[in-house]
Amino acid sequence: MHSFFLRLSRVMAYLGGLMLAALIVLTCTSIIGRELNSVFHYMAKNDILPIVGRYFLDLGVGPVNGDFELIEAGVAFAIFAFLPLCQITGGHATVDVFTSNLSPKVNRVLRMLSELAFAFVLVLIAVQLLSGMQSKIRSGTTTYLIEFPLWWAYALSLVGATTAAVVGVYMAIIRVGEVVTGQSMIPSEVGAEH
Amino acid sequence: MMLIFLRVPIGLSMFLAGLVGLIFVTGETTIPFARLKSEVFTTFSSYSLTIVPLFLLMGHFATLGGMSQALFKAAESFLGHRKGGVAMASIGACAGFGAICGSSLATAATMSRVALPEMKKYGYAGGFSTATLAAGGTLGILIPPSVVLVIYAILTEQNIAKLFLAAFIPGILAALGYVIVISIYVRLYPESAGVRERVPYSERMRALVDVWPVLVVFIAVVGGIYGGIFTPTEGAAVGAFGTGLIALLNGGLHKDTLAESFYVTARSTAMIFFIVLGAAFYNGFLALTQVPQEIAEFVVSQGFSPWLVLIFVLIFYLILGCLMDSLSMILLTIPIFWPVMQGLDFGMVTMEMVQADRAMDVLSAGIPEGMGQDMLASIKGAIADGAQLTKDQMKSLGIRVSEGMVNRIETEQVAIWFGILVLIVVEVGLITPPVGMNLFIINAMDRSTPIVETYKAVMFFVASDLVRVVILLAFPAITLFLVGY
Known about the structure:
heterodimer, A: mainly alpha, about 0% strand, B: mainly alpha, 24 helices
């Protein structure tokens, strides 16, 4: 059970990572295109091998059209896809100076409560994202330059948000179970990084 | 605040506080829930925040590419034979690594892996070694690029490139301060450090040459951002691409390590963005209640000296920094403190200074056409006397300096200066016993050293940090002169 959710979260994180890598390549391509574009423009204008410059300009060498929009859509997916992993490995930043002296039992109850709240929030986010997407479909909002429907980006993010909500609920159930049975049900968490 | 201390994750606490607060203020759930529809998406799809995962990935690639080893080897070959030289080399390497990595803990952890065994080998005391690395790690965040500075820039709506530039000299000062601390420490406790044999110059040069990838990436990223070739986000992408490529060529990057990089980046990114989201919600609530404005007005109306207020705020950060990680702290408190700082008058710039600066710009480009000798003389005289220029004088120079412009510059200068100060103070918290986060990370890597030993040695570095804060506080120009108006 746990290994299934863990694998699911990992796969999501890898997908998000691949998206990030794709964005990096996209950005670099766009920068190179932009710089080359101005070089070729310069060549065409100042009679330095104008044929070569014109040739490449006609080929369409230039910045990637709408790279900002693609980055924004892509990174939203990546972040949402990263959430489940952080959730399941307990990677969220906490302040544990004051609780480290309390008994394990009290700590367990506290953790259960915060995990329950987390599950609630994640489900809320996913549900509201869905309704946000529906309103974007209705209004037919598109992005500025390449005019792809904005709800596509929402739909992509929704995949991550839904997984996060599911994992959040699962973790909450685990923590409740821990309080009831009084023992740890999953391998102890990896310490949070900051 | 109470929630945070009960070990509720910080992002969640802020989110809940914001949500409950909004429901409380508006009396129903429609408005806060409606905000959730698009606000979560827009927060996560922010173009400027994209820089965060990119920098994290870049730092991880840099580790994989063996850059930490190259840096340490180079620094060691130059400094290793001195008293405490291997420790100094660690600081130097941390500074170098900080130039391509935006996170303190990552810098500390990465450098420890390389430098700790080496320090052990040359007979350095355990506590001294761990303390050195913990302190060196803070350079990661101070020397640009830095994730925390990006967040600060976004919160206060300042120019990221300018903040990076301003952080540069304080960062170098920090490294120098640590080196001085080391040389004092090894003289006080000679038994705590061994000496390494001298390395011939040919070998030193070879080690130095190995550092070139770090230099190329740093110059490309920071230079490119500052030179206006690309946006900070694009710079981060270039950096990640560059370090990734180097790691690939060195054979450090393959399927497994790539997956590992994604894993680590995913966890940290999700954590950071959840805090950012929580903060956005919490700030939305704060803004609605007008509390920050009221606090600002209250503080200003009390007529306290701006310096007193600033010192008070910094001490507050120092204490809080011992309990919380730097990012959460900045997100939690800057929305409250920044309006206060904006309301205070530090007198960074005056009308006369801006006029003189602009006038000198014009004059240094050549004396404008049609300007008479006597006009030129009168302008120069006014600048020398520190007097305001008259309308005619400004007109002949073709410059305009309005009251609003001066105020804007003043705000920007205070923002940059305050940001750097806060950044340093927050970092001091990271290495202050008994709860400094860096100390734990390093100590976990060196099981044989009791943490008390680290505590003892790190106090020297904390002292150096405090001295530096005082220096930067007393002389804002150190931070600001690179930035200009």
